[in-house]
UniProtKB/TrEMBL annotation:
Residues 297-310 have a biased composition (Acidic residues). Keywords: ATP-binding, Nucleotide-binding, Transport. The keyword Metal-binding does not apply. It holds the Pfam family ABC_tran. Residues 9-233 form the ABC transporter domain. Residues 297-319 are annotated as: Disordered. SUPFAM superfamilies: P-loop containing nucleoside triphosphate hydrolases. Belongs to the ABC transporter superfamily. PROSITE patterns: ABC_TRANSPORTER_1, ABC_TRANSPORTER_2. This is ATP-binding cassette domain-containing protein.
Amino acid sequence: MSDSSAPPIEVEGLTKYYGDVRGAEDLTFTVERGDIFGFLGPNGAGKSTAIRVLLGLLAPTEGDAWLFGNDVTDRAELLEAKRRLGYLPSDVAFYDRVSGEEILDYFGRIRGDDRREELLERFPVPLERDVKAYSSGNRQKLAIVATFMHDPDLAIMDEPTAGLDPLVQNEFYEFLDERQAQGKTSFLSSHVLSEVRRICDRVGIIREGRLIALEEVGELLAESGTVVHVRLAEEPPLEALEFPGVSSIDRDGDAYHLVLSREYDALVDRLHEYTVEDLEVREASLEDVFMHFYGGEDENEDEDVPDGDVEPAATDGGG
């Protein structure tokens, strides 16, 4: 049963295989009350697999997961947790031959709609029209209203701003900030790095089903330090520019790109040996951090799960 002191999300050794295909492996992390937690990784990394296990849509191969202290593999406990949950999937799908108002009426009867009118003012949609006539942006706004109108303590979201224009995206970010101020928790999967930097407190980075980083956003950026782009008259080999503090280095023609932990003196000493034609030094961005973990991988790779495991309904996780 729900424990008021339990974290909204707790995962320990969570593993999911589809036959011989790895979806997620040995994931361990905790999302505390009031967190806005970003779950990062390109398509195919295992983000959606982990979310489906949390929602009880998939059974884990090994490991455990809890929502508010409720075991997600126990049907009665999962139902108890879902009373406090809102779910916004990456592929929003509604019945096309019903109106937006009928959709919200349906979800409202299931779990409540205290914040419905307020949310419709912030994310307006043509309620009288059938959903088949909606643009992708209106479908996403309808899903946002359906997800949050019962004021859930925890929202689990998979690419929540897909299809939204920049103004609506900013409104959504402000809404999540307000939820956080009220002690509500948000967990979102995303590969939009500017979005993660804007709203998240902590991030988990997943690669090939494994969690490879779990840190506060600010700490992750601080550890990545400095990015240096330098063009030299000479053409030294990459190893000639390596020194303690350099975490990565590559070359494009006569331009060298280094990521280092603010070892400015060592950088100056090393560059003194060459003729510097151009030099740019800047603080690392979240994009730099991401490429450090994923450099060279195809972010458009398909998710490594069977199509039949994709959740079709917009907010089934909340009811």
